Amino acid sequence: METPIERIKLSQTAKDQLTKLKRLTKIDQWNILCRWAFCRSLAEPTAPSPVPIPQDSNLEMSWRVFGGEISDILLLVLKQRCYNDGLGTDKETLATQFRLHLHRGIGYLAGDPNIKKIEDLIELATKN
Q1: CATH topology for 7-125?
Q2: In sequence order, what DSSP letters do the residues of 31-98 get, joined into one string?
Q3: What does the pLDDT look like over 90-100, one tens digit per residue?
Q4: pTM metric for this prediction
Q5: What does the alpha-carbon distance between residue 41 and residue 60 come to, in Å, rounded to a whole number?
Q6: Which Pfam families match (predicted)?
Q7: Confidence (pLDDT) at 128
Q8: Distances in Å between the alpha carbon of 115 and those of 21, 42, 83, 122?
């Protein structure tokens, strides 16, 4: 499946927030934390605000590294979300929405005072 974005480069703010999450959860892989963040944002009923996101950190990964074994599933979920939000599913829209969801999710996870360990992420994901 063709990916909407080849290389994902994060903002310095997002990198700093991920560093905090790495310390709290003991998850040492950026891509795994990014998957949690992306899914966290997708769980919100509203679309992310269309704000400019700088690409000013040295944290970069490919789509395949981000998604791992479930990269095609994550792409399908992103397309469905864009469709549900009344947006296009062209490559540019998907790339923009992906970056917005990823950064919003990172901010939500890093700002959640209840996340102090990996079990807190699991609890967040499994609560009704």
Answers
A1: Arc Repressor Mutant (1.10.1220)
A2: HHHHHHHHHHHHTSSSPPP-------SS-EEEHHHHHGGGHHHHHHHHHHHHHHTT---SHHHHHHHH
A3: 999 999 999 99
A4: 0.94
A5: 20
A6: DndE (PF08870)
A7: 55
A8: 8, 18, 31, 10
* Contacts for 18 with CB less than 8 Å, ≥ 6 apart: 10, 30, 33, 34, 37, 59, 106, 110
Q: Which two tokens stand for residue 70?
A: 């479930």
Mean pLDDT of the chain: 93
Least confident interval from 45-54, 59-68, 96-105, 118-127: 118-127
Domain ranges of the chain: 7-125
